[in-house]
Every structure is written in structure tokens, then in C-alpha cells.
Amino acid sequence: MNHLVAPSVLAADFANLQRDIEMIDRSSAEWVHCDIMDGRFVPNISFGLPVLKAMKKHTQKPLDVHLMIVQPDQYIQHFKDAGADHLTVHAEACTHLDRTLHAIREAGMKAGIALNPHTPVQSIKHVLHLADIVLLMSVNPGFGGQSFIPYVLDKVAELKGMILEQGTSTLIEIDGGVNLDTGMQLLKAGADVLVAGSFVFKSADPIATIASLKALDPTQAAV
Q1: How far apart are CA 98 and CA 185, in angstroms?
Q2: Nearest 5 degrees, angle CA 46-CA 47-CA 53?
């Protein structure tokens, strides 16, 4: 399948959030990526349920919600009610990840597992079949605008091998430092979904920048 693009509203202009959400809706991006931070699992605070609910009114595209919070199990139904279509939780934040993934699916959302850069992909081998998405962080979570961590490319390739071996339809999503150069490398390694924040929203023409990410073709990349 062709890869997907999910602009991250963490890098949007929060004073003009409706404008930026509607821009994503007009673009060739498939998902709207929403980073929820609690100031505990990560050292920053972003936004919560009321903002997510307001955003849902201004897009026809799925809200791809990435929880960077402690005790995410407490909020599964709340995020469903606020409009989340996908709910991704950090393996590092879930004592009972199997149970959490089942609960997300039972609530009617696609279930995702996020892994910090240092967390090995083998740690989720036995629950991979429960994940619609695995989000590999290619920066340390908590802040936008960070530089890409190159060893994540090896994790992408390893995870793609696990998915093929198990025969699941899990999508590999990447968040952190994505641009045209790193995006091409990630797609060649086996990524399916590119999350881009600063690269999109700090560009002169965000819709054109999204289109350029969509146009990346790893089959045409120089060897």
C-alpha cells in the first residue's frame, strides 16, 4: 500500500487551531495526529479532551491520538467520546498492555502501541497481533522540533520483519524529526505512516509540504 501522512497538530498555531485543522482536511494527508501530554510521563503538557472534541468538529479525517500519559487505561472511553479514531498508548506506561489493547478495541477504536527510542521492538512480540498500529518514536517524546535518531531505522526494519513473520496487518508509524530525507529512509526501511509536525507547520506552504511527503517513493530512491 502507499504510505500515509499524519501532520502533528502539536506544531500547529494553537491560536488558529481551527484554521490549521481545516488546512489538514483540505490536504492530501490521511490522518490528523494528536499528541496528548500530561507533564508526568513526559516533561511537557500539550492539550486534552476539550480541545480534541473541538478539533473533531472541523475535520473529516481520522483523529490519530497518541497518549503520552501515565495510567492511560483510565481515559480510554473518554478519548473515544471526544472523537478519537485511533488510540495509541506507550508500552512503557502500561502495566497490562494486553488488557489495554483489548479495551481500546472494545471501545471501537484502532489500537496502537508506542515505543520510546530505547525500547526494543521484541518487547511487544506477543501482543503485536492486537495492535493496528505500532508507533516508533524517532525522538525522545515530550517536545516538538527535535532531531531524528538514526538507530530507529534499524528498529523499523526489525519490526517490519516481525510483522511479516506473524502475518499481521499492523502499520508502522514514525513520529519525530520527519522530513523528506528521513522520510525516504524510513519508507525504505519499512515504515507505513509518517508523522510530521514542525516540517509541515513551519513551512511556507504546508499543503505543498504534505504533498511532497506523500510523493516520496522509496522504489525510486537512489541506492
Answers
A1: 31
A2: 155
> Which of 20, 38, 132, 175 does the annotation list as catalytic?
175
**Is residue 170 within 8 Å of residue 133, measured between CB atoms?**
yes
Q: Catalytic annotation on 175? A: yes
151 closest CA partner among 127, 132, 174: 174
Q: Average pLDDT, stretch 61-67?
A: 98
The average confidence (pLDDT) of the chain is 95
The pTM for the full model equals: 0.96
Half-sphere exposure of 124 (CA within 13 A, CB side): 32
Q: What is the CATH number that goes with domain 4-220? A: 3.20.20.70
Q: Length of the chain, please? A: 223
**DSSP assignments along 117-148, one per residue:** TTS-GGGGGGGGGG-SEEEEESS-TT-SSPPP
What is the phi/psi pair of residue 111, to 5°? -100, 135
Residue 157, pLDDT > 70, answer yes
Tell me, what's the pLDDT at 223?
46
The residues spanned by each domain of the chain are 4-220
The helix (run of H) or strand (run of E) holding residue 104 is: helix 97-106
| pLDDT in the model for residue 143 | 66
- The Cα 46–Cα 10 span in angstroms is 7
Residue range 115-141: mean pLDDT, rounded:
96
Catalytic residue among 35, 38, 132, 192: 35
20 counts as catalytic:
no
